[in-house]
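Thread title: Can someone regenerate the structure for this chain?

I was given the following input by a collaborator and told the matching structure tokens would be attached. They weren't. Posting the sequence so someone can regenerate them.
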Amino acid sequence: MNLDEFQANLGYVFRDQNLLIEAITHKSSDNKNNYERLEFLGDAALDLIVAEYLFAKFPAENEGVLTELHIALVKESALALIASALGLDKILKIASHALKNKIKIDAVAADSYEAVIGALFLEAGFAAAKEAAIRAMERVFPSVAPENLLCHNYKAKLQEATQARFGELPIYRVARESGADHKKTFEIEVLVGDKRLGIALAKSKKAAEQEAARMALLKL
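Best answer:
Regenerated them for you:
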């Protein structure tokens, strides 16, 4: 995979190739000219692109369903899948020492994909960024619909299970927060009494709680 192949998959060729290179460069490779600033822009652009897409696609759905769909489409694992489908994970610029330290490639790929969308927005505007983002999203998620994307309500299922088995409700607690204010990552643990049943990491507390509940159900 090279830059030309990636851009063919993306459906957009950058006039400024240096902008693309910056969007695929991890800070371990270049502490100054890396994707972090573009990621900030792309994160905001993707949030709006997906929100507008869902608002138009599902006029009868309520805010709760739209929010869950939005979470499903912009969470790290979803963006990593899109990045992989485009071949972005094959062209990332990451220093060898970071690779030796077992850096999480999926997380880097997801962040870099946001940076690519940010770079595209910067160079060609919102409409071009939206077109490329939706095309890539629908390539990975061809059936964007609540029944296909929404996770089960694991929190409700866990509550039923712990009440029946222990006579107690689960408690969700933030174990750790990391990242800049605009790009927080939350590690949530779920406990019953003093026993931790599950722990999960996500970009929103809500998503992390659902995943922690899912892990707890697997234990039970």
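The first helix runs from residue 3 to 10.
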